[in-house]
Amino acid sequence: MKAIWTEMRAEYHGEHVRFDPIFQWPKPMQKPHPPIHVGGAFPGAARRAVRYGNGWIPVGDPAGALARLPELRKMAEEAGRAPAEIEVSIYYCPPDRALLERLREGGVARAIFGVPSSPRDEVLPLLDRYRGLAQALG
User: Could you read off the pLDDT tens digit of each residue along the chain, which spans 138 residues?
Assistant: First the structure.
């Protein structure tokens, strides 16, 4: 993807992915390219995030992911990267204020709440609740 996003004409011939010269336009606005966030379980996905990416999206419970952050930071340092370069995002985070405060204090960059595919009358009050929680956290 980095080659596709940054080169005029990209091609790649690796072990798992191969493609002959291709063109992609328009190029992303973000330079040198959009951030790459790697999702998956610890430790494999965290290692891939440190090696190739800009962020890790852990799988599993947020509190468990929070407990792994010191190990992620150590991996980054051992790879010669600043730990702050690897953002952590928690998807489908429970809208629990105490948990969100712990995640923020632990260095999690973002928590994303789930929104069901439900009728408007059910979703809008949920979004209002999420907004109120976000405002309360500052």
Answer: 899 999 999 999 999 999 999 999 999 999 999 999 999 999 999 999 999 999 999 987 899 999 999 999 999 999 999 999 999 999 999 999 999 999 999 999 999 999 999 999 999 999 999 999 999 998
Q: Is 92 left (phi over 0), alpha (psi -120 to 50) or beta?
A: left
pTM value? 0.85
Domain limits for position 90: 36-137
Q: Are residues 67 and 117 in the same domain?
A: yes
* DSSP E strand stretches across the chain: 10-13, 18-22, 37-40, 55-58, 87-91, 110-112
Between strands 55-58 and 110-112, the pairing is: unpaired
Question: Token digits for 113?
Answer: 């709440």
Whether 72 and 14 map to the same domain: the answer is: no
Q: Which of 73, 59, 64 is nearest to 107 (CA)?
A: 73
